Amino acid sequence: MTNENQLLKKIISHCKEYGYIFPSSEIYDGLSATYDYGPYGVELKNNIKQYWWKSMVQLNENIVGLDSAIFMHSNTWKASGHVDAFNDPLIDNKDSKKRYRADILIDEFISKIEEKIEKDCTKASKRYGKTFDKEKFISTNKRILERYKKIKYIQDSINLFISTKKFDKIKTLIEELKIKCPVSGTCNWTDVRQFNLMFKTKVGATEQGASDLYLRPETAQGIFVNFLNVQKTTRMKIPFGIAQIGKAFRNEIIARQFIFRMREFEQMEMQFFVQPGSEMKWYEYWKNSRMNWHNSLNMGEKNYRFHEHENLAHYANAALDIEFKYPFGFKELEGIHSRTDFDLKAHQELSTKKIQYFDPTINESYVPYVIETSIGLDRMFLSVLCHSFTEEKLLHGESRVVLKIPPVLAPLKAAILPLTKKDGMPEKAREIMAQLQYNFNCVYEEKDSIGKRYRRQDAIGTPFCITIDHQTIEDNTVTIRERDSMLQNRISIEKLNSKIMKAVSINNYLC
Length: 511
Ligand code: ATP
Description:
By secondary structure, this protein is of the alpha+beta class. Helices cover about 40% and strands about 25% of the residues.
């Protein structure tokens, strides 16, 4: 097993052990790729939502919120193109009977070539030492240039075959590249078929009267069909945005990599409505703004990169992903799409209701263009965990596992720990708890030795441990231990609030 896979496995079991994420319906042996968020998981999730909502909605005068229903009229999905075009190409291996997304098999093949390029560079840098110039090496080394040529050929081919729906050619490409099934190790593939990702159900009591219903595959359409409701009631002027957080459902062909790809997941989306012709300016704006938002959490700039789409969705005239470096490689965390006026126009046509905006600055009515920012809450959650999970060797052969979660997102901000269960310490600790818990999510714990309690809070990712000891009773001071440095300082009880606030307040990150 590769180190990366091992790391993901460790994160998954850590999440279960410490109440972050449990497999769904576990007592019935679970439901594949479906997870429940535990007590600390739901806090982390809520903190991520709050961090996003604050920066997108409350700190932007021209963005407002919405919470539309998951159920929508089935015409919504006809107009949006999801009934006809929300498909993935699937392929089966005849020997293992395993099913794959054909484009992902090819993406993974490309990632392997990229890994080889990285290995070549590492080898060369060892050989040349300080004089090694990576850029020059990449642009001149014959083997690397050939590898890049191959990547380009594969990418161009798959983009063309997907956009022109040439599924037989996708199969030929998989065969030509000799891509093997990871389970059977053979190249014995079926034809590539289209598979619609929407979950379909029925609404209504009787079979005859029931009508089709889809579980929404994205939250965006709830925003589009409410465009005029929101614009009129809030008196927003273009450019302005509508933001929403909510569940989305996709019948993914293969759902795996823990919470990275699920069939039920949550999105945080914002649709920004602009004057036609100005969309590229706003596309650039949101591209940079969203990258800055990610970097505001200090999880390492090198862990993020842009990936421009060459193969555009049916509604877009430009699109890119912000990718995060997960243990299984750089993968999409957020999508930024210039959606043109496709959705609003399509809803206008099918509903026969005018969806237009009168722009007083140019004295004209038009269907606005849209820039979308769409981030998966669960993928964001996973990025925070992957960044935070740290195994540290300590002095005297000891070790600890610590979640170095950005304090603003940490589920618990402080643990209140009386050193012993006597001499008035629990009572004093309860007083401190009562004082802090209105501002911060805190926990009170008196079980186990203090060392064990520190380790447990490290594993949960609590930024501060506050210990109440004999001296506290005498002079109203406590020790405050910082999670990452493990340093302990003595401070007076009245300074606790401001000390914690300084580390966990959203202002310190977003201002
Ligand atoms: P992918 O190419 O990985 O299937 P996508 O391009 O189809 O993703 P979008 O339609 O752009 O994804 O959705 C916006 C965001 O929603 C993605 O950036 C991702 O963070 C999240 N997302 C999409 N599908 C899933 C899923 N199955 N599980 C968890 N999050 C998802």
